[in-house]
Amino acid sequence: MGAAAGVLVAGIALPAVGGAGVGLVSAVEDVGLEPRDLAEPPLAQVSVVQDVKGHEIARFYEQYREVVPLDHIADIMKTAIISIEDYRFYEHGPIDIEGTVRALAKNLQSGGVAQGGSSITQQYVKQVLLNAAQTEEEKNKALAPSYARKLNELRYAMGVEEKYSKDEILEKYLNIAYFGAGAYGVEAAAKRFFGVSASELTLSQAATLAGAVQDPNATDPNLGKTSRDRLLKRRNVVLDRMAELNKITKDQAAEAKKARLGYKGTPLPGGCESSTYPYFCVYVRNEILRNPDFGKTAKQRLAFLNRGGLTIRTTIDPTMQAAADKAIRKWVHPSDNPVAAEALVQPGTGAIKAMAASRPYGTRKSRNQMSYNLVADAAHGGGIGFQAGSTFKTFTLLTALKQGMKINDGFSAGAGYTAPDYSTFKNCAGQPIGDPGHTVTNDEGSPGWLTLQTGTWHSVNTFFMELERRVGLCGVVKTAKSLGIHRSDGTALKEFETFTLGINEMDPVTVANAYAAIGARGKYCTPMAISRITDSTGKTTDYRPKCRQALDPEVADAAAHVLSGVLTKGTMAAVGGIGRDAAGKTGTNDDSSSAWFAGFTPDLAGAVSLGDPRGTSKYKLNGVTIGGRYYGSVFGASVPGPIWKDTMMGALRGVPPTDFTPVDAERFGGCGDSCRSVVSVTPPTGDDGPLPGDNTPVTILPN
């Protein structure tokens, strides 16, 4: 070792100033050339995203690399790389004296470090230092053509050779080397260049890859004909060298040279644009990048995802996703101006089971593609969302039930509602925000005597404005917030008197998750996309649902009871139910600017939005053709409702139905102390007996 070091140090001697001579350093101790331990950070590896059943759905990476053991690499590949890069690799120590002497002569001629005489071990060291570099300055230092860098590499190389066997070093080198075309490591390169695994490489293919490592940017076949010609020439150099060293015969070399380059350019898997479930993929990516559970800083979280070689098991269910995709395709075309988006969430866990939209996700400039997450909020790659409309009336209903109202309590609602004065409504800061200059009218339902049930079933705006006044605007806002409601754009909720009419822009994941809490008898769970992560060492971390009891279970039961009538007696009656206990609420905004349906069973909840991303105030859903059908005006039950119904029937096929818990009749079944009187009205009769009609007693309540 000492003799080799002496020769090497001589080989990298500094030229004397003015060219009068060369001063040679002849003693090892003068430069401290002793083994040094090399810090070897884990190689950047591909992170694989899986669905709930373990099927791959996406990949994330900073460097596309698949680490493989040496016995998974073809012998001809090992022979080729050793022949061209370090043919005495198994014979010399960390320093190749013969190579160093050659480098000495070249360096003396050029007056600098023109040739390094690097062994494979030294090249591995350089790659480790380059991969560990965090800044451009560190990267430049790792590549600098200086004697100081060369000495450092040698010290580290001596340490590496003491620590590992030759086979281990070769394995590490083949996994870290860059081959061009975005492929890091021999496995990724074999797939990228030729569409095969490293274990299947032929002589010609192995020689091509071995030739590429010297200058992978200059021979990158992805860059065009000139680069491919360079790579072909470089391949032939490798073949000649292998024949010269008697690793192959001259005939074998000649035959291999006849082969075409054979570059396939197999697309690198990964990224959300190529994912089976792109919108969910975007959600998962943003969940990791913003969640402190996955790293204290944004930089750490990005490295965790793109370099960690993770296996990320998610909550997406392929059967339920297929049902959502099919239903949306049936009702809305990708070419339609309005866009439908849907999320499915599991009650009791918050697990996101599907995220679908009528347009494909992508960043290319295409009219039909969406470059942001239509199904989620801005924090998960989404946009501003659409106003949720009457789906927000559910939060007013819940607040009334929380405050002791019964499902048959009611009052008269007029054709219009105007706040008497500014103090009629107060936000949660106690500020009066009523607007006596604005009158709310009804888009659906008729005014008159209405109860919590009938007012909800027919979605009567004026009824809910008065109900919100009675229970308090702030109470409704707090109920909504307790169920995870927040604006899609991340700004504070707008706490105006029309809050109950859904003036806040929302996303399907948030709305579906809020309704899922009702289906779970008031148990709210944070939306969950990731259930398990296994790192590159095999360590597994399970992620549990984060839940809390947001509602009294009996309040949730009563709300489910009322909302179930929407499907059988209310705005969704024409669409119908799904053959099992289900409940929900339609949502239509002013002049059909956007439309929603949100519904749930004890097993699954879903929300569907429909709007024009060009701007709902300008491009309303009136006189439009959607999915090949013309609509004079679109309501929540026109398109979102049928999408939800078809989705739920497909998603829950084969899932045993779970019934709602019956409403507590003693607590919510009557009108209680608020009843003034109950009068049994005798049904009208005709010549042949009672006339058709509702023969139940009429409940008369005070205003």
TrEMBL record:
Reaction equations catalysed: Preferential cleavage: (Ac)2-L-Lys-D-Ala-|-D-Ala. Also transpeptidation of peptidyl-alanyl moieties that are N-acyl substituents of D-alanine; [GlcNAc-(1->4)-Mur2Ac(oyl-L-Ala-gamma-D-Glu-L-Lys-D-Ala-D-Ala)](n)-di-trans,octa-cis-undecaprenyl diphosphate + beta-D-GlcNAc-(1->4)-Mur2Ac(oyl-L-Ala-gamma-D-Glu-L-Lys-D-Ala-D-Ala)-di-trans,octa-cis-undecaprenyl diphosphate = [GlcNAc-(1->4)-Mur2Ac(oyl-L-Ala-gamma-D-Glu-L-Lys-D-Ala-D-Ala)](n+1)-di-trans,octa-cis-undecaprenyl diphosphate + di-trans,octa-cis-undecaprenyl diphosphate + H(+)
Residue ranges of every copy of the Glycosyl transferase family domain listed in the record: 54-242
Any one Pfam family match given in the protein's UniProt record, by short name: Transgly
Region entry Disordered, spans: 681-703
Biased composition (Low complexity): 682-697
Keyword list, A-Z: Carboxypeptidase, Glycosyltransferase, Hydrolase, Multifunctional enzyme, Protease, Transferase
Domain Penicillin-binding protein transpeptidase: 344-610
Name listed for the protein in its UniProt record: Penicillin-binding protein
